[in-house]
UniProtKB/TrEMBL annotation:
This is HTH cro/C1-type domain-containing protein. SUPFAM superfamilies: lambda repressor-like DNA-binding domains. The keyword Transferase does not apply. The lineage of its organism: Bacteria, Bacillati, Bacillota, Bacilli, Lactobacillales. Keywords: DNA-binding, Membrane, Transmembrane, Transmembrane helix. GO terms for molecular function: DNA binding. The chain crosses the membrane at residues 81-99. The keyword DNA-binding applies. Residues 7-61 form the HTH cro/C1-type domain.
Length: 249
């Protein structure tokens, strides 16, 4: 006996019409009819409601209906999977919103710190209102604040670089322990090469972004040594400026 026959059997036992059963289950009469003739099956939630309404166990209601048992088992598994997926998706959405709010809060702090420390917005239209510059004691400082939720970087931690330029010398302070010296013929006519090299806090050569010959490396080291005191001071000042930007009061 399939579930449709069971439903009809229990309905007749209680002397209910199809209309009455449909009313109790909040479905249409034609839906009840389709169950009883085997055209359709009730969903999992309705099967539980039918079991409660007739005061019979699910086991008895579904007994001998192997097709319905398989369908119900499959729906139960799918429901469980959907529930798990919904929970995971909810966690991801909440985490995204929360983290993005943190990034927006960080951005607000950084911009406020820049303003309070005398930084001015870069007037170059290409900066999009996100670049700042500061002139202090003959040295120019430049930084860029990436807007929170920026396309392509929706969950990226804000990384604050401070570029320090003094005369023909340029240093990019990437963080507390990463410093890059930018060498360019356009900045210094005394050199005949361009390069970006990683240095330590004292201005000593560590590595280069590009492969360089032994001769070029020797030239770079000689140049760095000649201006070591300047680079050391620029790195120190850049670190101080960066700390002032990211400090939370």
């Amino acid at each position: 006996m399939n579930i449709g026959d069971r439903i009809k059997e229990q309905r007749l036992y209680k002397s209910w019409t199809q209309e009455q059963l449909a009313h109790f289950l909040n479905v249409s009469r034609s839906t009840v009819s389709s169950w009883e003739v085997g055209r359709n099956y009730p969903d999992l939630e309705t099967i539980v409601a039918i079991s409660d309404l007739f005061e019979i166990s699910l086991d008895k209601l579904l007994r001998e209906d192997s097709i319905m048992v398989r369908e119900t088992s499959k729906k139960a598994k799918h429901f469980k999977l959907y529930k798990i997926a919904f929970v995971i998706l909810s966690i991801i959405v909440v985490s995204y919103i929360g983290y993005n709010q943190k990034l927006k809060h960080d951005e607000t702090i950084y911009r406020a710190n820049l303003q309070s420390n005398g930084w001015k917005l870069d007037t170059n239209p290409a900066s999009g209102g996100n670049a700042y510059e500061l002139y202090q004691n003959g040295t120019k400082y430049w930084t860029y604040i990436l807007p929170a939720g920026f396309i392509g970087f929706p969950l990226s931690e804000q990384k604050i670089d401070v570029i320090v330029k003094k005369g023909k010398l340029t240093v990019d302070v990437h963080g507390r322990d990463t410093f890059e010296v930018i060498l360019s013929e356009s900045n210094d006519s005394d050199i005949t090469f361009s390069a970006k090299v990683i240095v330590d806090q004292e201005g000593h050569f560590l590595s280069s972004e590009d492969k360089i010959s032994g001769r070029k490396k020797a030239q770079i080291k000689k140049y760095l040594l000649y201006y070591q005191n300047d680079y050391k001071q620029m790195i120190h000042n850049g670190m101080l400026q960066r700390k002032r930007i990211i400090t939370r009061h």
